[in-house]
TrEMBL record:
GO molecular function: DNA binding
Domain (Tyr recombinase) ranges: 114-316
Key words, A-Z: DNA recombination, DNA-binding
PROSITE patterns tied to this protein: TYR_RECOMBINASE
UniProt-recorded name of the protein: Tyr recombinase domain-containing protein
Pfam family, one: Phage_integrase
InterPro entries xref list: DNA_brk_join_enz (IPR011010), Integrase-like_cat_sf (IPR013762), Integrase_catalytic (IPR002104), Integrase_recombinase_N (IPR010998), Phage_Integrase-like_Recomb (IPR052925)
Gene3D superfamilies according to UniProt: 1.10.150.130, Intergrase catalytic core
Superkingdom field: Eukaryota
This protein's record includes keyword DNA-binding: yes
Gene Ontology process terms (BP): DNA integration; DNA recombination
Length: 329
């Protein structure tokens, strides 16, 4: 019985570890380090938490460059650790003074949010002209750009942070791509909102008549030029080398600059936002756009906007309807 009891304890710990995805756990640990550094600097106890300490820590967050959402996530992580270390102290986070301080912090940190602009079809055309697709490194980058747009993929879906951080469970491998007649099938397995790989599916990408954007043909060319194993990173440009976050972003920045755009207005995430805006412009429903980008909440609506010409069209329809109503006796 004692052995069985101990095994249950071990299994209980393992379940708790699986309850948090690796990225979430790393964020919480990073938040904990910030709080402990604060306590060490002022030579005060970290846990169990005290009301006065939490209030001063919130005030400190108001001095920095934190966004309000980041600040509340940080406080939430401290609350999570407080529950593990000293459960009774968690009630401090529900105190009226803490609530009032957070509201004040929200007002203090409120600032206009400047999102990166979405890439459009015209931008993709410009990037195509900037790249030398006879260069295998550029060819694999172009494939990554098209996948990011057509699948609404985040950069973390495509390549690792550095070349020695490739994780086959997170980034696309060669055998995650299948060719079927006029479509390319991409094996979706991991994302920021699917860190436990609980949702897996083959995502189809249809063929485009314009050869510049025919992902299937470019991937087939890439596979024929680079004889890498099936479990290699999809965006390998030699048998032993592949793209990382840095190399893709560097090539993209070069394309953005050559296209006469401001680097501060765009990032790799602009592909994801551009895909969402393009789908929205097609008249697809919110639920379809949310499914396309695998958003777990309606937060994706912050990405969406009408193109300027569509706004002008709507404004004219409103004005015309107003005139028609005004003419009625």
């Amino acid at each position: 019985q004692r052995g069985s009891w101990r095994r249950l304890q071990v299994e209980s710990c393992a379940l708790r570890e699986r309850g948090l995805a690796q990225g979430t756990w790393q964020n919480k640990v990073s938040h904990l380090r910030q709080y402990i550094a604060f306590c060490v600097y002022y030579n005060i106890p970290d846990f169990p938490v005290h009301l006065g300490i939490i209030l001063r820590f919130i005030a400190l967050l108001g001095r920095g460059s934190h966004a309000y959402k980041s600040a509340t996530n940080l406080i939430s992580s401290i609350k999570w650790f407080a529950f593990l270390i000293d459960p009774p102290s968690v009630k401090i986070f529900d105190a009226v003074l803490v609530s009032a301080s957070l509201k004040g912090l929200k007002a203090h940190l409120s600032r206009p949010v400047r999102q990166k602009l979405p890439f459009t079809i015209d931008h993709l055309c410009n990037f195509y002209n900037c790249l030398n697709l006879f260069n295998v490194k550029h060819l694999s980058c172009w494939c990554a750009m098209l996948l990011a747009f057509f699948c609404c993929f985040r950069l973390s879906n495509l390549v690792p942070i550095s070349k020695n951080k490739f994780d086959p469970l997170k980034q696309l491998k060669r055998d995650d791509i299948k060719f079927e007649k006029d479509v390319v099938l991409v094996y979706y397995k991991y994302s920021k909102t699917n860190q436990n790989c609980s949702i897996v599916a083959w995502v189809p990408i249809g063929s485009v008549a314009d050869d510049r954007f025919n992902l299937k043909s470019y991937l087939q060319i890439l596979f024929s030029l680079v004889k890498a194993p099936e479990d290699a990173l999809l965006f390998s440009f030699s048998k032993s080398d592949h793209h990382s976050r840095y190399s893709l972003v560097r090539i993209l920045d070069s394309c953005v600059f050559e296209a006469g755009l401001l680097l501060s207005d765009f990032s790799w995430h602009s592909f994801r936002r551009g895909a969402a805006v393009f789908a929205f412009e097609l008249g697809l429903s919110d639920s379809v756009v949310q499914l396309l980008g695998n958003w777990s909440s309606p937060a994706f609506k912050h990405y969406l906007e009408f193109a300027f010409l569509r706004k002008v069209s709507v404004a004219r329809k409103i004005a015309k309807s107003f005139d028609n109503q005004a003419k009625q006796p």
